[in-house]
């Protein structure tokens, strides 16, 4: 799909997961006493044990070395990641760049897999973390612009949902806003704001919220805690 300002874009549909929980137990549960079980408190990064249960369930995972939050450190993130907006070609007249754009998911561990973990909690109490998470999914979109050799942020959103329906509805709102974006009005307003924000040392999260409000009418981060 052509966009006058972002170049040649392809908006992908979210793939509804076949399963909304990891229920299949591990063949070798002894790893529950050895591997990391830290939980990414705000994001979607999966620890080593969660990854094993997801793979045992047949859930496809993606490792992104550039994406990390609470649980991933500098090693990147392993999560359920699906592409959303793919920028096939940049419009050189506007130099707007899609830095990243994706759908993300997190599932609970339930059924026989949950019972397996419960049996090891007396030996390793922190495993209870793995049983305290719920389903959530999210939209993640980041757009930048290159101006005189400098990269300027345009918008970055991370919106979480406790239902697949919420994600599916809001992705259309975002896509329409991006397609209908008035470059001269919105981008120039954001660039002017960025200049003032740097001058006045405005908090980074306040800046992100302001840019997102200008473009989408909502704040930048709408996060659901993992625990």
Question: Would you tell me the overall average pLDDT?
Answer: 91
Q: How many H/I helices?
A: 5
Distance between the termini: 39 Å
The shape, in one word, is: elongated
N-to-C series of helices and strands: EEHEEEEHEEHHHE
- Assign a percent range to the helix content: 25-40%
Give the helix/strand class.
alpha+beta
Strand order of the largest sheet: 3-4-6-7-8-9
How many structural domains does the protein architecture include? Answer: 1
Characterize the main sheet: 6 strands, mixed
The proportion of strand residues reads 25-35%
Characterize the structure shown.
The chain is an alpha+beta fold and 227 residues long. It has one domain. The chain is 28% helix and 26% strand. The protein has 5 helices and 9 strands; from the N terminus they run ββαββββαββαααβ. A 6-stranded mixed sheet has the order 3-4-6-7-8-9. The protein has a 3-stranded antiparallel sheet with strand order 1-2-5, with no helix packed on it. Helix 4 runs antiparallel to helix 5 (204-216). It is elongated.
